[in-house]
Write a structure and sequence with these properties.
Helix content is 40%, strand content 15%. The longest helix is centred in the middle third of the chain and has 19 residues. The chain is of the alpha/beta class. The structure holds (3S,4R)-3-hydroxy-2-oxopiperidin-4-yl beta-D-xylopyranoside.
Length: 358
């Protein structure tokens, strides 16, 4: 770490204080694996978390590939590091995620596993153990878990299919099973299906399939409490009509909403810093204004507080090679216009009224 910048939230109420006014928490992802520096070990990053946040989420450390070392084994070192920091700082913790339904995120040892003559019961036992081990370990600390992540192929609307799902007799069966296992392990924990459907062109298929999935889960009586809206924006203006139509259907089925992974890609915005930061802030504000107009929408979590640590530096690269500026704070740890946009959206939020009322 070369810089001497000192992290500083702007004067005035923190984002968490503003979120609390409407009964919500504001928070961020934090990581313990990013080279060369882990944000959980960065004193400036953790100082900002303490100043601005009420809740944290581990960016990778609780995923199957983040803590499972084999079919029967776990390594909790990194996940525990984050949980310990949250506890010490007095911050809540969300769990992300118990089962990432995409084959590409399943480790080789599970892809290659032979589930035997009774695959559904073998896979079910694996899910039971995985879910229970994680939920038990953070019982009382993690009160909201992403149980299943990204189960739909966005382009086709079909289910993602893993060997685990195949063994269970299908993806819907696997999802249903995982949520029931989670409910058994944590009767009072908020159980979330988390995905990244948006309003953009090409996302209609994704939205439609997520609605169908949520509908099917309702029919089955699957214990799902909320839809996690990842909220990786692309900087384009929100199509309010399309987006509200989707959200209305979700809350109409009795689901709550959470903004689980908010950030803004800036690849389609100009290189000029002022213009770019304004574009990012405007896109973020317009989106959050809609989300926070729903009384059923709960916490807001950014997928990283500071650009330096953002996954967008790898996954959302700009063609001109400049650093992506999709987080509330810049690489100098100073607040950017997006921070003020989040603050304004929180100030104008409809009070949260989470409990699903039929
Ligand atoms: C991303 C992390 O930010 C990266 O560090 C990692 O390499 C890949 O996963 N949707 C999710 C998150 O649910 O878990 C993803 O996080 C971003 C997209």
């Amino acid at each position: 770490m070369g810089g001497h910048a000192v992290a500083a939230a702007p004067a005035g109420p923190s984002l968490q204080a503003l979120a609390q006014r409407s009964g919500r928490n504001f928070g961020t992802a934090i990581n313990a694996v990013r080279a060369p520096q882990e944000s959980v070990l960065d004193a400036q990053y953790t100082a900002l978390c303490r100043q601005e946040c009420g809740v944290l989420v581990a960016e990778n450390e609780m995923k199957i590939y983040g803590l499972r070392t084999g079919y029967d084994t776990f390594d909790f070192t990194r996940a525990d590091k984050i949980a310990a920091f949250a506890k010490e700082a007095g911050l809540a913790l969300r769990g992300h995620n118990l089962i990432w339904a995409r084959p590409q995120y399943m480790p080789k040892w599970i892809k290659d596993h032979d589930f035997g003559a009774q695959p559904a019961s073998a896979a079910g036992a694996w899910i039971d153990n995985h879910v229970k081990t994680l939920m038990d370990r953070y019982q009382g600390q993690i009160t909201s878990w992403d149980v299943v992540n990204e189960a739909i192929v966005p382009e086709t609307g079909a289910y993602e299919v893993t060997t685990l799902a195949q063994a269970m007799g299908g993806t819907l069966e696997m999802i249903d099973y995982a949520f029931r296992a989670a409910r058994a392990a944590g009767p009072k924990v908020e159980l979330v299906y988390n995905d990244y459907m948006g309003w953009e062109n090409g996302s209609a298929t994704h939205r439609k399939s997520v609605l169908k999935l949520l509908e099917d889960l309702r029919k089955k009586g699957t214990p799902v409490d909320a839809l996690g809206v990842q909220s990786h924006l692309d900087g384009s203006p929100v199509d309010e009509r399309e987006w509200r139509r989707f959200l209305d259907e979700v809350v109409g089925m009795g689901y709550r909403l959470i903004v689980t992974e908010f950030d803004v890609r800036d690849g389609n915005l100009p290189a000029d810093l002022a213009l770019r930061d304004k574009g990012v802030a405007d896109a973020g504000k317009a989106f959050l204004d809609i989300m926070l107009s729903y009384k059923q929408c709960g916490d807001v979590l950014a997928w990283g507080l500071v650009d330096t640590y953002s996954w967008l530096q790898g996954f959302g690269r700009r063609k001109d090679g400049q650093q992506v500026r999709g987080c509330p704070y810049g690489a100098d740890y100073q607040a950017k216009p997006l921070r003020e946009a989040v603050a304004q959206a929180l100030i104008h939020a409809t009070p949260y009224q989470g409990a699903a009322k039929a």
